[in-house]
């Protein structure tokens, strides 16, 4: 007569016979069939609650706008806006990767050439209604904080920790990722540190 299974954990598993050892641990070896044991393991695994992954940390971005089209002051006045009109494939990929809660530096190009403030993504990528072709996306931004001092492009270029950011290397790209340290350094420069 077969006995009641014992549910013991065994810390060591062989890479060759891992399934069999796991089976013996789970079913106590009472079934006598490796095939039946594997089926039992699959059934047990399916009924186990899924592991919760840690929340993904917020990403950091920089967006550029011409102040005569849409300035930082406009975003502050509006409170939030749909970031539309981006027609560069690399920038589109970056927009598609943005998630609500991501942090964004707002850079005014052409005349100002400075980071003006911090914004936040409030809505992930959605179809850009201003595009004539399908596939272009927009995100929604919310103004969070105006920097005490705008961080000029010349200041960014002279900062050793910011020498490799895309704003310096690929100046024409309108949406770009930043490392958390790069983002923090630019905010610190804008706060006068």
Characterize this entry briefly.
The protein is α+β, with helices and mostly antiparallel strands and 193 residues long. Helices cover 32% and strands 26% of the residues. It has two domains: 8-52, no CATH class; 60-190, Roll (ph1033 like fold).
- CATH domain fold name of the largest domain: ph1033 like fold
Please bin the fraction of helical residues. 25-40%
Q: How widely separated are the two ends? A: 77 Å
Shape: globular
Protein traits:
2 domains; 26% strand; ph1033 like fold; 193 residues; globular; alpha+beta; 6 strands; six-stranded mixed β-sheet
Describe the structure in your own words.
The protein is built from 7 helices and 6 strands. The protein is α+β, with helices and mostly antiparallel strands and 193 residues long. The protein has 2 domains: 8-52, no CATH class; 60-190, ph1033 like domains (ph1033 like fold, Roll). α1 packs across α2 (34-47).
Chain-wise SSE layout:
Layout: H1 18-27, H2 34-47, E1 60-65, H3 72-78, E2 80-83, H4 89-97, E3 103-108, E4 114-127, E5 137-152, H5 153-158, H6 166-169, E6 175-178, H7 180-190
Parallel strand pairs: 1-3
Antiparallel strand pairs: 1-6, 2-5, 3-4, 4-5
């Amino acid at each position: 007569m077969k006995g009641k299974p014992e549910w013991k954990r065994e810390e060591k598993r062989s890479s060759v016979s891992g399934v069999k050892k796991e089976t013996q641990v789970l079913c106590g070896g009472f079934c006598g069939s490796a095939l039946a044991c594997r089926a039992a393991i699959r059934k047990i695994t399916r009924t186990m609650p899924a592991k919760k992954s840690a929340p993904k940390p917020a990403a950091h971005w920089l967006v550029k706008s011409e102040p005569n089209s849409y300035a930082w002051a406009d975003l502050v006045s509006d409170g939030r806006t749909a970031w539309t009109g981006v027609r560069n494939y690399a920038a589109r990929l970056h927009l598609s990767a943005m998630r609500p809660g991501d942090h964004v530096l707002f850079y005014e190009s052409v005349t100002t050439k400075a980071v003006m403030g911090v914004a936040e993504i409030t809505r992930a990528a959605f179809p850009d209604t201003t595009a004539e072709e399908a596939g272009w996306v927009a995100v929604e931004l919310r103004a969070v904080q105006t920097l005490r001092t705008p961080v000029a492009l010349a200041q960014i270029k002279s900062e050793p920790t910011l020498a490799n950011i895309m704003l310096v290397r690929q100046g024409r790209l309108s949406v770009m990722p930043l490392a958390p340290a790069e983002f923090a350094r630019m905010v610190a420069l804008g706060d006068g540190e």
